[in-house]
Amino acid sequence: MNDASPILQTVDLTKHFGMVTAADGINLQISQGEFVGIVGANGSGKTTFINLTTGYLKPEKGDIMFMGKNTIGMPPRAIIKSGLARSFQIPQLYTNMTVLESLLLSLAAESGNGGSFWHSLFGQSRVSEGMEMLERFGLRMYANRFVSELPEGGRKLLDIMMSFALKPKLLLMDEPTSGVSIEDKFEVMDILVKVLQESDITTIFVEHDMEVIQRYAQRVLVFNDGRIIADGEPESVLADPEVRRNVLGKV
Ligand SMILES: Nc1ncnc2c1ncn2[C@@H]1O[C@H](COP(=O)(O)OP(=O)(O)OP(=O)(O)O)[C@@H](O)[C@H]1O
Ligand SMILES: [Mg+2]
């Protein structure tokens, strides 16, 4: 793949649930280094797009090229290994583990050292890496607390950290700031933008808060009924009367 080719390309991506068209022929190209927001009313297909792109759902039709390779039919684990990670709208965490233990699991999974997996889980260098990562994400003080003790915003951040620990090239985040108080949203996004850009991770994030989109997204995609109805810089897209009438009023 040369630098000019998109890191992600979807062609005519289509998925129905019964009568509902959750993805209606999505054509999209994302370039290396972009920080892209997705907005759209409830049920407009944002999570479905993430599920399709990461192999959690199989499209009925269409192609997905990630770093030049067609990922259709690949299981989620193989897609993650190829460098495409995601976080969840509702974090999927082991609540009776500590925050540090959870992160160490992800770090161990990334290094994938087979038989020595459990042995090395708490190896000194890995614990240091985990603590350093917690520091960067502002969660160091929670290292030895149980996941169940984290506030919702903290659980979302931990879920994102666990995908970050897999060292992806592209990260899809489903509503990273939901459950985070209005006052803390910018702080969380400041951390995420800094860490992800320092690590050169191309990012797509779903977000309902237009202030967050305006402040952080370089490009915004507007979803409506499984289709992308607008794509461009937030300032012009969010000012578009059709977008405002059809989508933002329903967000
Ligand atoms: N597993 C499923 N089974 C049946 N219908 C589904 C399933 N997943 C999604 N849908 C339907 O597909 C449509 C798109 O859902 P999706 O979750 O992608 O929306 P969304 O934009 O992420 O919404 P929200 O903002 O509420 O998270 C909705 O009508 C939803 O009810
Ligand atoms: Mg969703």
Provide structural commentary.
The protein contains 10 helices and 10 strands. The protein is an alpha/beta fold and about 250 residues long. The chain folds into 2 domains: about 170 residues, 3-Layer(aba) Sandwich (Rossmann fold), CATH 3.40.50; about 70 residues, no CATH class. It is globular. It binds adenosine-5'-triphosphate and magnesium ion. The site of adenosine-5'-triphosphate (ATP) has 12 residues, from strand 2 and helix 1. The site of adenosine-5'-triphosphate has 12 residues, from strand 2 and helix 1.
CATH topology of the largest domain: Rossmann fold
Number of strands: 10
Derived structural class = alpha/beta
User: From the 3D coordinates, which CATH architecture of the largest domain would you assign?
Assistant: 3-Layer(aba) Sandwich
Radius of gyration: 18 Å
The biggest sheet amounts to: 6 strands, mixed
- Low-confidence blocks of residues: none
- End-to-end Cα distance: 37 Å
Shape: globular
Strand content: 15-25%
Question: Widest sheet: strand order?
Answer: 6-7-8-3-9-10
Count of all domains: 2
Instruction: Give the bound compounds.
Output: adenosine-5'-triphosphate, magnesium ion
How much helical structure, as a percent, in the residues?
25-40%
CATH class of the largest domain: Alpha Beta
So how many helices? Answer: 10
* Average predicted confidence as pLDDT: 91
What is the fourth-level CATH superfamily of the largest domain? P-loop containing nucleotide triphosphate hydrolases
Order of helices and strands, N to C? EEEHEEHEHHHHEHEHEEHH
